[in-house]
Each structure stands twice: as structure tokens, then as C-alpha cells.
From TrEMBL, chains A, B:
The lineage of its organism: Eukaryota, Fungi, Dikarya, Ascomycota, Saccharomycotina. Its cofactor is pyridoxal 5'-phosphate. Keywords: Aminotransferase, Pyridoxal phosphate, Transferase. It comes from Maudiozyma humilis (Sour dough yeast). This is Aromatic-amino-acid:2-oxoglutarate transaminase. Transmembrane segments: none annotated. GO terms for molecular function: 2-aminoadipate transaminase activity; aromatic-amino-acid transaminase activity; pyridoxal phosphate binding. It holds the Pfam family Aminotran_1_2.
Amino acid sequence: MTLTNQELRDRFAPFISRRDADRHINIFWETQPSAFSEPGKQFIELSGGMPHTSFFPIESMSVNILTAPGSTDTINVPITHETPSSLALKHTLQYALSEGFQPLIDFVRAFVTRLGNVPQYDPSLWQCLIANGSCDSLFKIFQTCTDERSVVLVEELTFVPVISNILATGAKVVPLKLSMRDDDQGIDTTYMEDLLANWETGPYAAYDRPKFLYTIPTGQNPTGLTQSVDKRRKIYALAQKYDFVILEDDPYGYLKFPKFNHEKPMENPYISTEMTTEQYARDVLMTSYISMDTDGRVIRFETFSKIFAPGMRLSFVILNNFFYEKLLKFQEITTRQPTGISQQIVYSTIHAMAPTKNTDDVIEAWLHWIMKLACSYTDRRNVMLDALYNSEAYKRGLYSVVEPSAGMFIIVNVNVDEKRAPVIQQMDELIRVMDKHGVRAILGYKMAVDREFSKDHLNFFRLTYAYADNHEQLREAVTRLSDSVVEYLA
Amino acid sequence: MTLTNQELRDRFAPFISRRDADRHINIFWETQPSAFSEPGKQFIELSGGMPHTSFFPIESMSVNILTAPGSTDTINVPITHETPSSLALKHTLQYALSEGFQPLIDFVRAFVTRLGNVPQYDPSLWQCLIANGSCDSLFKIFQTCTDERSVVLVEELTFVPVISNILATGAKVVPLKLSMRDDDQGIDTTYMEDLLANWETGPYAAYDRPKFLYTIPTGQNPTGLTQSVDKRRKIYALAQKYDFVILEDDPYGYLKFPKFNHEKPMENPYISTEMTTEQYARDVLMTSYISMDTDGRVIRFETFSKIFAPGMRLSFVILNNFFYEKLLKFQEITTRQPTGISQQIVYSTIHAMAPTKNTDDVIEAWLHWIMKLACSYTDRRNVMLDALYNSEAYKRGLYSVVEPSAGMFIIVNVNVDEKRAPVIQQMDELIRVMDKHGVRAILGYKMAVDREFSKDHLNFFRLTYAYADNHEQLREAVTRLSDSVVEYLA
């Protein structure tokens, strides 16, 4: 049947927590524009408790932006109270709407539409909501949707602060097995299908059936795994069959890499093929869950943290009208509005990257920036993998590596001998040896949702190649890691 | 007895909601610095999923700041990845600590200490927490502290979005009567004392005794009322006697005005006395609740929204260590950190206002800016009061005015005839007449917590003098208001 707003309400009302029913907004201001129109006379607002713009200490600003990641060429972007006219300082310094500034919403919407990261149903039934970072939006979604009766499926190893937010609503989390095979990365769909088909006789029979799946489909944190398109289609079909909503958290989606070439470790197809943004968008980027969504059951979280800067605290959510209204209402009485100055800087920077203000040109310029970032990350990934494969510890079989094709992380599984001591104890000891050698990584077991469930996946480190100063530092870090493992295990 | 962290925990544990007990943070990263130290070798971090700074599109920026509100003189403030060295872009664009950047925390702490807006107990037992706006911090405090068992005292007319946040936790709100007499502005302490002394036989006997008072003590929203120091002392004594916590929301505290002079309406003592910041701080600014606090029972909310710009979404909370840990933990898994770029701009701007980087000089410069703002607001308040007192409707006794000595708001009580029609209906009709005349204000009844309780206070409009373009527009607005009231009532 054709989706409508009414149908969205009927379909998703059961996905709302009892908490949301307690959330009422007291709107005390008039939201309708005045009908006043008298030639030569201006309507006067005495309503909003807003300082006049002359009271803001900032008269204007300018931002020097890079023409490409790592470049030294810059473009100066002037921003004043009146310019750019589409989004000027006098507005962004002021109180503003909770959903974000319309020009930024329009850009974001055009951008995700260009990449096909939009639902298949009527475009009037979904929205892009600008927000203060995906972490906060996820918190708000769980507060809105889950309570003591709710069950959320999650990857067995995941970004655990999100788990804190789920548990804080009283909901339960149920881990899903991850496959780490090169040809089958991510959620183990055989396990998942079996779990769902036999829920009432399975290990979680005491719980209700799950209403949500929280997943990081591309460059997963901490594992670096990327789900294939086939896997995504299978999981979406399961979502339809067993009626759950998919929360697609995709901070790393744009940092997508061609496959690592063992013969030519430093090969970077972004450079060697002179890749165009067209090829990048079509052949490299992954098909998102939201692009498969015919039902309104996918909520997609994107952020500017990894492709612009975390200090902006700026992100957006793509979601159907029903969930949108709920999340917007929650923003209105809490964070109130995404930071205006962040919206200003991100909007102005992206627009300054383009030769014209034509939307297609701006999208193309931003896509170009992002592709260049992905290219740099590919180099870093190559360097680290190359260093790992050539390391002493690897050659002696003391650890194995899971190859990422997206994101910021590589995991290294250390072949500890379980008979010697508990795995966690050994990993704790090993990280102290690493500290002595001058290198630190994340202890994988700390990102397990349930250590008993993931008892075969507690022996890894999450390494990032994102933060090092240069390639030499990455190689040096791997040498220190390898030396530590050799010292500890050999 | 001397306050200690243990004593704070014991004393305030009963002020924590059952929700907080469900809030556990999964910290998966190492929080201790490494002990690694080897000459000529640098410790290498592969832990944090942070982009290298060369991936941020911003190379540098510069902000042109005003030397005084409304001035056209500007100072150029350069900000680069390395400067100012105390807080540089490479840090503020990056992921950072949830409590805010230490240099900004230090400044804020020194600033409130200079003004005496700090508790009386041991300085090691309280903190300044940087946050994303007071609205969000209040939301987080209520989530942390209140639940179905809780009762919160509030002014009968208040900033109602906060009420939404209290009710959303399941807590009850109990309105307190407001006195609008010039010589007794704000919470009616006789009523309050009686209510508390006879709680078990009073109108709210079915509720537990209140654990919190939420108050806007200076330039209250919507009434513009400012509580005298005596009143504050009485209320603090009640807080001690009946053991409740005071949530002091003080967005307007710095916008404090000398009393309106009916003989010389445009008199502005900031100008006529060439007021110094010393006099402003000592004689004009109000004594805050937190400055009276010996017990840890005041939590103070300050914001940069009214004295810098709302679009920064930057604020801070002054609170004891026990509540601090709770609120910080909540920030960590939600908004994650106050916007870095906002902290950068606010910090850099304030420091650029001073002739040296000496903290006393920076405090003095910022105080000077704030005092100039208060001076401009005094002019605007004077203009609007003068226009109101000279308006046709006032002269015909159709409305009265409550004189503010702080903030952004004046309320006008319209003398509607209750026999003619319900007050709310008449106010709704009147605002439509105002719309026809080209002016809009806030309907006071929409800011009542309980319309039955406040049935004698439903006949007012909240006007702001903050937002008008100039004094002429303020006068024109009042003329239109007056014309509307005359047309409707006469």
C-alpha cells in the first residue's frame, strides 16, 4: 500500500516508548506569521527574548579553508552579518529553529539524494534533521523509542557508549554474532535469522521480540568490518519479516577504500585510476540501508565529525515524518538547536569549495573533498596493513589482522594461549608491555556487549590509523606493537 | 560540620532519581596518561578514533570583534591550529573532554570568583561545567534528580519549556505565588513559608515534600521581576530548614539596571555617573543564591546566550562535586562535549578584548563588555517604560506596568473586565487586534504553570525591548499596543 503520514503513525506508534507520552512541549510563542501588511509599515516583534544583533561581539569573521586535505593552498571565506545572504551571521548567531537552518537542510538533503542515501518512499514523508552529533541523536532516539519492554539487537562488539544509552532507558540489548571473514564481514545473518525464527525457544525467550537493530554497517567500530550489499538486503528483509526498525549509524561511510592489494600494498586506486567523484559515488561508496527502505523502518545517522571536524558537533538524521516530529520535539526542549556557528562554518566552508553557488557544483565540490579524504585514509590503511603483515609478530604467527575496507580502524587478534591465563588478564598484561614500548591501542574486550557471548573475540586490539602524524609514525607504532607481542608471547 | 566529598554524597544521594542509577558509562578507552618516557621517542596513540588535524578543512580563521556593543570599531582576532597557544584550533576542532576545555573552565571560574558568584564552602568541592546551553543542562539535571516521587517548586509564571522537562521525568510541579509589587518583587515568601510549614495539610498534601526549587531570580522570565537580597536570604533559609536544592537559572543576571527614574525617564546612571566595572560589580549586580551557599544545595546556571550570542550554544553550571560527576557523566554519553568551535570563539574573543593575557585584565575587559551591554539595555528599558507611561491606554487606565530592573522583559497587565468574557478569551481577541495594528507580544497566560492557580495573573503581555532595531521602533511598538488596547477595551 502507499505510505502516508497516517500510515506511518499507525505503523510506528508501537515503536514509541512510554517516556515519549510524558513529553509535552509548552509552546508559549505564536508560531504563525502575522497577516499584517501595510505599505511602508513594518511588523514589530516584541515576543522573542532575543538580543538585537548589535549586541553580539562578533562583527564578521573569515575562515581560511584548505583546497584539499593536507594541502597548503587556502581560500579565504568571508562571513558577515549579511553575507552569505543565504545564511548570514545575524541569523546564525541568533536563536533559531530546532531543526537547523533551512539552507543547510536543503544542502544536506540534496547531497544525500545525489548519493541515493534516501528512502524509496514519497520524499514528502521523510526529513533531514540537523543535530548536535550522532551520539546525542542516538540518545534521543532511544529515549523516544525504548523502555523496559524493549529489546535492541546490536553487534556483539560495538561502540559501547550507545549501549549505555539503550540500557539507561531500561531496554535490553541482545548481541548478534559478527563474522570476521574477508568474504563475509559483519553481522552473521545465519545466526541472526535462526535467532529470530526461533526467538521464543532461544536464549532470549524471556524477552519480547526485538523492535530495533542498531548497526554500524560500514567500517564498523571497533572491528572495521563492512557489510556487503547482499548482507544488507538480507538484514533488511529480516527487518520486514520480523518487523523491527534499523538504526543505521554511518559515521565512516564516506571513508571507503578499495580492497587492499597484497601484491602492491601501497596501491591506491584513488590515485592510480585518477578516480572521479562519479566513480567514487557509484563504485566505491556502499549501498545504505536507507536506500533500500520502502517502509519507513530505517533511521540513518550521518555526522560531520569525521569528514569535517568533531569540534563542530554537527550531524544530521534522515528519518520518516513520524519519528522526525518526535525527535524534533525532544531537541526543542533540550539542546534547543544545533549550534548556529557550526552550521554557519560548515555551510560557508562547503559552499566556498565550489566554483559557483549552483547546488550541483557545491555537491560536487564537497564530494571531491570527501573523496580526497577517503584517498588519504586509503594510504594510511595501506601503510598500517603493510607494516602489520611485515611485522615480526605477524611472521611468527602471534597475531592475525582483519582487513578493513572503510573507516578508521584495524583490529589485530592476538594469539594468546587460553590455557596460560584468562584472555582478559593476558590482554591487560600485554597492553602494559605496549605502554612500556610507547604505544597504546584500545582493548577489544572493553567493546564487547557481553563478554561471555563474545568469549572468542576478547583477544583483540583496535588500532586506528586516523590520528598518527605521518606514515613513519604508523610504521613505528606497528613495530612497537609487534615488539610488545613478541616480548609478551614468545 | 566541615563539608567533604563524602558528606556531599551522603547529603545529596536522596536527591538523585532512580533513572540515574540506570546510567552506566562504558568507558572503553584508557583514561590515565602513559608512564612512557624515553629520550627522543614520542608515545604513539592508536586508541582514539580521531581524524588527524590535517584532515580538517579549516586552516585558520579570524574573527572581527567589536570594541563595545553597537560600536563600529573592530579588533581582528587571528585563530590558527597553533594559536592562541592556550586554546588553539587543532584542539578545538578535535574530539575533546566533556567538561569543556581547561583554559575556558579556568577563565569562567576566575570570572565568577571575581564576582562572588561562588559557594562559601571549600573551593575544591565545587566545579564549573561547560555545557551546551542552560536549557539542555536543566533537562539533564531534572533527568538526573527527579522522578515520579519528586516535587519541584516553581514560580507560578515561568519559562515553561523547563516545566516540560520536569513533567517528562514524572515529577510534579508546584507553583509559588509571585508578588509584583515594586517594593517586593518575586516569590511571595509569606505564601511559600506557609505552604512549607503546613505541607501535610495544604493543597499538595498528596505529594511528597519538595526536593527542588527552580527559580529565575533576576529579571525573571516572563515577569521581569528581580528578587531582593533579603528575599533570597529568606528563601535560602527555607531551603535549609525544609531541605531542598535551589536551581538558580540566571541568564539575565548581568543585564541589571539602576531603578527607573520617573522624573527623568531617560536617565541612565551607567552613563551619567560614568560607572566603573568596580561599581557595577559591587553596587548593581545582585547577590546570587550560590554566593550564600554553605551546604552545596545551590546549582547555578549561567549562559553566554544573552551576553555573547545564542548561536554559540554555550553555557556553564556551577555545582558541587557530587552533582558535577552526575551531570558530566550524562554529558559524556549524550552531547558528548560542548561545541569546540564555540568554546574557541568565545574564549578567543573575550581574551582579545583585554590589553594583556593577564587573567585580571581579561576579567576586567569582559566585565566592561557586559556592563556596556547592561547600559544599552537600560536605555531600551527606559525608552519602553517612558513610552508605556505616556501612552494613551496607560493614561486611560487600561493597563498597568511592572517595572523591571533586569533582563529583557516588561509585563503589561491589561485591565480587562472579567464580567465581559473569560480573561483568556479577551487576551486572545486583543492579540488579534494587535496583529492588525502590526505588533506582537507573548500572551502571559501561556507562561502560567497552572491557569487556575494564577487566575489573577492571566491578563498580561510579556514585551521585550531586546530585539527592536532602535528606540524609535520601540516607541512605535508601544503606540501600536496602546492603540490596540484602546480599540479593544474603550
